[in-house]
C-alpha cells in the first residue's frame, strides 16, 4: 500500500505577515483538488525533509542565500521579492496557481473570495514593510495587534476565519466611531467617538477594548496613552477593566 502524500505549509511565526501568507495557502487548498486527495498540514517554523519545497520569502537573508526572482531547480521552487511582503507573495503565488488548476466549475466563486480579501493583504504588507501609505494603515495594524491572535493554527484552529474577518470588523468599528464623533460635534462636544467592545481572543471577560475615532484636528492619542494604549491622531485605542468602565457610566449619568 502506497504511503499517503501530504502537503505541508510552513510559515513565519509569530507574525501577522506569516499568518496571512498561510491564509493565502489555506484559500488555495480549500478550492484545489489536491485537498480532496491528500491532507494539508500547517506548521509554524518547522523544518523537516520534504519531497518538494516552495520557498516564498522577502527577507534579505533569503535573498543573499537564494537570489532574487522566481526559479525552479530540482524539487525546489523559489519566489524571493523584497518589494512585497510574505503575505502578498503567497497571495499572488497561490492565486495564480489556483486559477491554472482544474477548478472551472467553481472558479467564479474562488475569484470572488480572493478579490474580497486582496485589500486585507495589502494592509498587512503596508504595515510589515513600514510604508504606511494606505488610509488608516497604522490604525488597522494597531487594531490587529490588539486582537492578540494566536498565529499558531495548531493551537488556534479558527485562525484563518479570524484573519478573513479582520477587515470587516475594523471597518465596522471605524464607521461607528466616526458616526459617534459627528454626533458629538452636533451636541457641542469634542469630535471624538468611542466604540467599546470585548475581545473574545483575550479570554478575559473583565477587559474591554475602547477604539477612539476623531474628526479633523481632534487628537485621540492623549486619551489612549493615559490608559496605556496608543495609535495616531484620528484613530487610537486602549484596554480598560470593565469595573472602571462601569464607574465611568455612573459618573456620566450622575452629571446629566
UniProtKB/TrEMBL annotation:
InterPro entries: DHH_sf. This is DHHA1 domain-containing protein. It comes from Sesamum angustifolium.
Amino acid at each position: 500500500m502506497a504511503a499517503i502524500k501530504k502537503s505541508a505549509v510552513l510559515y513565519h511565526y509569530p507574525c501577522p505577515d506569516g499568518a496571512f501568507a498561510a491564509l493565502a495557502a489555506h484559500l488555495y487548498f480549500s478550492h484545489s483538488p489536491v485537498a480532496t486527495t491528500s491532507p494539508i498540514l500547517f506548521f509554524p517554523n518547522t523544518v523537516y525533509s520534504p519531497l518538494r519545497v516552495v520557498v516564498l520569502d522577502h527577507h534579505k537573508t533569503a535573498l543573499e542565500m537564494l537570489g532574487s526572482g522566481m526559479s525552479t531547480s530540482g524539487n525546489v521552487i523559489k519566489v524571493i521579492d523584497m518589494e512585497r511582503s510574505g503575505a502578498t507573495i503567497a497571495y499572488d503565488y497561490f492565486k495564480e496557481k489556483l486559477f491554472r488548476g482544474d477548478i472551472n466549475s467553481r472558479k467564479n466563486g474562488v475569484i470572488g473570495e480572493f478579490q474580497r480579501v486582496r485589500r486585507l493583504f495589502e494592509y498587512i504588507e503596508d504595515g510589515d514593510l513600514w510604508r504606511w501609505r494606505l488610509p488608516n494603515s497604522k490604525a488597522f495594524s494597531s487594531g490587529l495587534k490588539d486582537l492578540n491572535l494566536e498565529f499558531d493554527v495548531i493551537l488556534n484552529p479558527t485562525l484563518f476565519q479570524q484573519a478573513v474577518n479582520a477587515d470587516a470588523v475594523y471597518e465596522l468599528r471605524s464607521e461607528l466611531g466616526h458616526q459617534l464623533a459627528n454626533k458629538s460635534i452636533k451636541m457641542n462636544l469634542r469630535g471624538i467617538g468611542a466604540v467599546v467592545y470585548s475581545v473574545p481572543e483575550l479570554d478575559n471577560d473583565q477587559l474591554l477594548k475602547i477604539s477612539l475615532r476623531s474628526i479633523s484636528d481632534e487628537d485621540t492619542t492623549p486619551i489612549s496613552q493615559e490608559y496605556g494604549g496608543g495609535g495616531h491622531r484620528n484613530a487610537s485605542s486602549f484596554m480598560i477593566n470593565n469595573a472602571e468602565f462601569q464607574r465611568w457610566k455612573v459618573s456620566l449619568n450622575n452629571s446629566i
